[in-house]
Specification:
This protein is of the alpha/beta class and 252 residues long. The protein has helices at residues 3-11, 15-20, 64-77, 112-120, 129-137, 179-183, 185-211, 241-244; strands at residues 28-33, 37-43, 54-57, 83-88, 91-93, 96-99, 124-128, 143-149, 153-159, 162-164, 173-174, 177-178, 215-219, 234-236. Strands 3-2-1-4-7 form a 5-stranded mixed beta sheet. The chain has a 5-stranded mixed beta sheet with strand order 10-9-8-13-14, with helices on both faces. Strands 5-6 form a two-stranded antiparallel ribbon.
């Protein structure tokens, strides 16, 4: 490595990774917006990381303007991208956010995709965060369901690798409340780990009967609290899939 390249690597920890993937363009800035943290990473055209994963805490009052300021901070850390993919924790249609129960009411009818394109002068695609994580996890065979457990409960279903958009299972009535009431963070805090695991086992059985999935993927930070043996066609996926799936938004 030349002295000049060495200096660049020292001043920018992501420089070497970016350089190693520079020949595989376009480069995607993939962002995962969560209720507690916002993560981002640069990916090459094959969906492989070419930067470290950057993370900042989600603003305490996560209005659109507050989250956009946080996104600007992440963008400044990860320069040199050609396009942007965003996973958003709520209902998204045509780049517009409609419902974000675990963020803020002001996200109703917010044109996030258009706003980012205007600010960053790059093409942008926004989708539900569970859908993006599913894009990173699914194998493309049969019916595949993904459920994510963090602040809330996300969901997405794929048939032969194709996303069926619009599924919001977390807010569907189940037992006396909703799936999210039992399996999101407030359910975990209210009922405790033992009861949360019991309800998750029941939810696995219920979703299998409802969707006849061939494989179920479980994601999100609270999967580390799972304390029972999963069926052979149920697997835990890394949180990183919520970023790595960003490239596949551009193949739809």
């Amino acid at each position: 490595m030349s002295p000049k390249a060495t200096t660049a690597a020292v001043s920018d920890p992501n420089a070497v990774l970016r350089a190693s993937g520079a020949s595989s363009s376009p480069v995607t800035l993939s962002i995962d917006i969560g209720g507690s943290g916002i993560k981002a990473m640069l990916l090459n055209a094959r969906g492989k990381p070419i930067s470290a994963r950057e993370r900042i805490v989600t603003p305490a009052v996560p209005t659109p303007s507050a989250v956009l300021r946080a996104l600007e901070e992440l963008r400044a850390r990860l320069a040199g991208f050609d396009r942007v993919s965003v996973g958003f924790p709520g209902v998204v249609k045509n780049g517009v956010t409609y419902v974000a129960v675990n963020l803020h009411p002001k996200w109703a009818n917010f044109p996030l995709e258009r706003e980012l394109e205007k600010r960053w002068k790059k093409p942008v695609r926004v989708a539900n965060d569970a859908a993006v994580q599913g894009h990173g996890a699914v194998k493309g065979h049969g019916v595949e369901l993904i459920l994510t457990f963090g602040t809330g409960m996300g969901s997405a279903i794929f048939t032969d690798g194709k996303l069926c958009p619009g599924l919001e299972l977390g807010h569907h009535p189940w037992r006396e409340k909703t799936y999210e009431d039992y399996l999101g963070r407030r359910g975990l805090d209210k009922y405790g780990k033992k009861q949360w695991n019991k309800r998750l086992e029941e939810a696995i059985e219920q979703t299998a009967a409802t969707f006849n999935w061939d494989h179920l993927y479980l994601g999100g930070g609270n999967t580390k609290k799972i304390a029972f043996r999963l069926p052979k066609n149920v697997s835990i996926v890394s949180n990183e899939e919520g970023i790595l799936g960003g490239v596949k938004l551009w193949r739809e």
